[in-house]
Write a structure and sequence with these properties.
Helix content: 10-25%
CATH class of the largest domain: Alpha Beta
Oligomer: single chain
CATH topology of the largest domain: Nuclear Transport Factor 2, Chain: A
Largest sheet: 8 strands, antiparallel, barrel
Number of helices: 4
Structural class: mainly beta
Strand content: 35-45%
Radius of gyration: 23 Å
CATH architecture of the largest domain: Roll
Strand order of the largest sheet: 1-2-3-4-5-6-7-8
């Protein structure tokens, strides 16, 4: 990953409604595209300008040999390319295509907050709402590191924990914050202790899986308008997490 976060070295296939294009992200200043079929079929290496827009989204623009100008909004978080092109005959195209990564970037590219939030949300709800163990191998790294001293290390220990969990355990997700390869989620868990607890879980993501975990918990103290006590965990948080879309 470069200084601006652009995933140099990555190769992607982009499926637009009427054609497919392969992009190779050679550097911050060069891109190679290949269109194998149809009226736009050709291969060319172009000089590009890359402007990071935040949250793994980049504006990438170039001009081709025939005079066509193209601006891509490449969203690696959601796996989409929004493309705007003016052809030599002045025809203007607006297209949105889906990304399939065919070669990874030269360095790990985990600065994908939308995807990483969805990963953490799925992990917390599948284990501590639905009590499923079948998702653990898919969501957690084989070398998963656990910093909670009351939980043994590794994925197998996590599976045993879920298998032996009381049916009364139920987790409610709230606010989620992501930056780089880290995600923090604020939630409430019932049945884990005698009283409901409010918890902050912090995860590190590596190669698309949960690689490391820290947490802090405290017993929930109910809010009181009369005493001016704001709730520790409110309905607006649950509403926030429920509107998170898929990665």
């Amino acid at each position: 990953m470069s200084s601006v976060g652009y995933p140099i070295g990555m190769q992607i296939d982009v499926s637009f409604p009427n054609f497919f294009v392969n992009l190779t992200l050679l550097s911050e200043t060069k891109l190679k595209f290949e269109i194998k079929d149809g009226p736009f079929a050709r291969t060319e290496t172009v000089e590009i300008q890359v402007i990071p827009l935040g949250n793994s989204i980049f504006s990438v623009s170039w001009q081709e040999k025939d005079g066509a100008t193209v601006t891509n909004v490449q969203d690696f978080d959601r796996g989409l390319v929004h493309s705007y092109a003016t052809l030599p005959n002045n025809q203007f195209l607006r297209m949105t295509g889906t990304i399939t990564v065919t070669r990874s970037a030269d360095r790990d590219f985990d600065d994908c907050p939308h995807r990483n939030k969805a990963l953490v949300l799925e992990a917390m709800t599948s284990l501590f709402q639905r009590h499923e163990t079948s998702t653990i191998d898919r969501l957690y790294s084989p070398s998963y590191i656990q910093h909670n001293p009351n939980i043994p290390q590794g994925r197998d220990a996590l599976k045993e924990l879920v298998k032996k969990m009381s049916p009364d355990v139920y987790y409610e997700p709230g606010l989620i914050v992501a930056q780089g390869d880290l995600v923090a989620i604020h939630g409430r868990i019932r049945g884990w202790a005698e009283a409901p607890q409010v918890v902050v879980d912090l995860f590190r993501i590596e190669a698309g899986k949960l690689a490391e975990h820290w947490d802090v918990l405290q017993n929930e103290v109910p809010g009181s308008k009369a005493l001016g006590k704001i709730p520790m965990f409110g309905a607006e948080e649950i509403a926030y997490s429920s509107h998170l879309g898929p990665a």
